[in-house]
Structure formats: C-alpha cells, structure tokens
Design goal:
Blueprint (H helix, E strand, L loop, with lengths): L2 H22 L4 E6 L7 H13 L9 E6 L7 H10 L4 E5 L2 H10 L5 E5 L19 E5 L6 H11 L5 E7 L5 H7 L1 H6 L3 E7 L2 H13 L4 E4 L3 H5 L1 H10 L4 E3 L2 H5 L4 E5 L1 H16 L10 E2 L3 E6 H7 L5 H6 L2 E3 L1
Parallel strand pairs: 1-2, 1-3, 3-4, 4-5, 5-11, 6-7, 6-8, 8-9, 9-10, 12-13
Antiparallel strand pairs: 10-12
Length: 326
Amino acid sequence: MRRRDFLALVGGLTTWPLAANAQKSVIPVLGFLHSRGPEDAAYLVASFRRGLRDEGFIDGQDVKIEYRWARGHYDQLAELAQELTRIPVSIMVAGGGAPAVLAAKSATSIIPIVFAMSGDAVKLGLAKSINRPGTNVTGINNFTTRLDPKRLGLLHDLVPTASTVGYLIDATYPPSAEQASSIETPARTLGLRIRVLRASNEHEIEIAFDTIDKENILALAVASSPYFDTQKMRIVQLAAQHSVPAIYHFREYTVAGGLISYGVDITDAYRQIAVYAGKILKGAKVRDLPILEAAKFDLVINRKAAKALGLRIPSGLLSIADDVID
C-alpha cells in the first residue's frame, strides 16, 4: 500500500467517528410561537414538554425548542414567526389565540404548523376541512369564545341580583368584535344587560374597574385574551378591590384568587398538540391529521374569594364543580 493511501485511510478512520457524531448531534428544532410571555405560560410549556416526552422526544436531547414570545403585543407576532422560519424550524407550534396561528401561516406554507386556539380554522382559511386539513396547519380548537354564554349563565347563578353584567374585552385582540356580539343573545335570554368594557393596557383596565364602580355593575365576565392572561394577577386583584364577582375563562385565574372559572383544560390541549408534533417528527403528514376539539373542561370555584365577597355559592353549583379551592 502506498504511503499516501495509507495516510488517507488512517485519516479517514480518525475522522469518521467525528463525522458520525456530528451527524448524530443534529436534532430537529421546534419553533414555539406564543402570544403570551414565558412567565404566564410556564405551565403550558411544561405540559407541552410532557406530551413530547410521551412521544419519545426530550427537549435538549431528541429535539430543541426555540421560543418566541409576543407578551400580549400581537403586532410583534409576524416578525417572530419570520424569525422561526429563518432558523429554520422543522415544526412551528402556535399558541395563544388566532393571531399567533395566522402569523405562523403567513410566514410559511411549507413548515408544518400545529396550533392551540379558539377559532374556526376553516373560516380563517387555515384548513380546507376539519377532518382532513389539506394544508400545512392542524391542531386543537379550544372553543374559548363559544363558552361565553355558559360562563354568563354560571355568573347569573352566582349573582342573580345583577341585572347588568360588565364584559371586559381586549380592544386590540382581533376576535374581540365577535366576542362582544356573541354575548348579546344569551344575555337577552337571561334578561341581562351587557356593559362592554374595552381595555388594551394596564391603565385602561383600571379605568374599566372604575366604570364598574361608577355604574354600579354587580358582576363581571372577563373575555379570553392572551394580553389579559399576562395581566391576570392585576385583574384578579382589581376585582377583589372593587368587590365585583367575576368569572374567567381559565382555571389559572381562579388559582390566582379569582372567584370562578369555566373553560377548557388548557394543559391537556398543550399536551395534545405536543403529541401531534411528535407524530409529525415521526413522519405523519400534517395535512392528514384532523383538527381536534377540546374534550376536557374545568369548572373551578374559589370558596375563599366567595367568602371575601360575601357570596353564598349555590349547592347545585358546588356539586358540579371540578375543583373547589378553599
């Protein structure tokens, strides 16, 4: 064997394991785009990671997650989605409402997108059908806005003397117009008047609660909004300070001291979208994965908050609660 061939062989044997290890170290990257901030969505991320782990993917070992947070500033979502496409990511997970999903879809028609949102994906142009999306988008519908009539009924059961109910909506959240209109019919059915209170920053939230005092509004429903989720502690505190019974869309508000919440089990929703992400990483085609509907719902009552408000919780309501916080 000629000397240079021998050296080439030795060199190849020396570098081959390194090349193999380098290849092995390349792991898929998931983009996680969210309308909230990391502090407000930590428990959702934990549930998402658990779902990935159930599918055999551990963050930092089998997959890497790149996070992008809008922190309630919806106008930043488009650029954040573009950042993820430039990495590029193998899959984009979009959460925190339709604005994040629409931003992801605008950024790419190729990279698979898995969403968690409340909204009709077909009407929004994200999918061709629920059972077979036929696009690069699938996920789970949380039906958060659709549950507003149910929340209004629960609030009426708690505060039957309230003839006017305040409805706090995020003025900059795109679905807010739909939220405001969808509550009118169930309100009339219950014989209630709705006072819509619009807020898109901390100062306006405080003004909304001042209005509740001035107009003697005896009950409040807080509409779903990623921005409100970033402000949940402040909203719950203001409701307590102004002595107004309020109902919320996620249990995290009630855990934070709010009176009552009714909505989807959002942690389960994030586990499910992680399962979908895992299936796609294993080769499933996103266009063939049906859009799921949230199946688990939580009614949570905070008895301590009720006592502070001087409210007696009807026994019938307590009997159907999934969780009662004392």
